[in-house]
Amino acid sequence: MKKQWYEYLWIFSALYLILGFFNILFAWLGLICFIVPLLISIFGGSKAYCNKYCGRGQLFELLGGKLGLSRNKTPPKFLRSKWFRYGFLAFFMTMFLLMIYNTYLVFAGATLREAVTLLWVFKLPWHWVNTSFVAPGVAQFAFGFYGVMLTSTVLGLITMLAFKPRSWCVYCPMGTMTQGVCKIKHGKP
């Protein structure tokens, strides 16, 4: 059976991480992964992005399933529970809003922090990147957003290794958000 174009979106996810490592400004491309799922759930009334177009889920499926890096164990019940999913979404959104606030501070005159924060704790220096040709706030958003995307990828890889390949999808903040949109707007789970 011929593969569809969207079955290769895992390449976008891998390329995004690689390009962002060498030039942090590529982090802005990650907004596609935020905007498109919401638009699909708002106007399409479904989680088609998660089920069909999510390059990160495809990447985990490739690494965990086809390459056999997953233990293929069912994720624990607490990870799949509503309280954990919505609690993680609230936590993730808090971290996202703090990132936006830090970007605002840099636009307002604070010093650019050339670091990517991994798992919201570990600051990885990113001093080899030249961001002098853009406004410091533009660069600050890129550093922060790449940290969000890298953190969620690392969490996804950890759960992929420990459980089934797409175990991240069980508590992915975007999946939880789009599911909420579908329930509110279209009455669909």
Secondary-structure map with pairings?
Layout: H1 10-22, H2 32-44, H3 48-53, H4 55-66, H5 77-80, H6 82-107, E1 115-118, E2 122-125, H7 136-162, H8 168-171, H9 173-186
Antiparallel strand pairs: 1-2
Content of β-strand:
under 5%
Distance linking N and C termini: 30 Å
Physical arrangement of strands within the biggest beta sheet: 1-2
Shape: globular
Structural category is mainly alpha
State the major sheet.
2 strands, antiparallel
Count of discrete alpha- or pi-helical segments spanning 4 or more residues: 9
Helix content: 55-70%
Number of strands: 2
The helix/strand series, from N terminus to C terminus, equals HHHHHHEEHHH
Q: What's the mean pLDDT score?
A: 94
Return residue spans where pLDDT drops below 50 for at least 5 consecutive residues. Answer: none
What can you see in these coordinates?
The protein has 189 residues and is mainly alpha-helical. The chain has nine helices and two strands; from the N terminus they run ααααααββααα. α2 runs parallel beside α9 and α4 packs parallel to α7 (136-162). The model has no long low-confidence stretch (mean pLDDT 94).
Notable traits:
mainly alpha, 9 helices, 4% strand
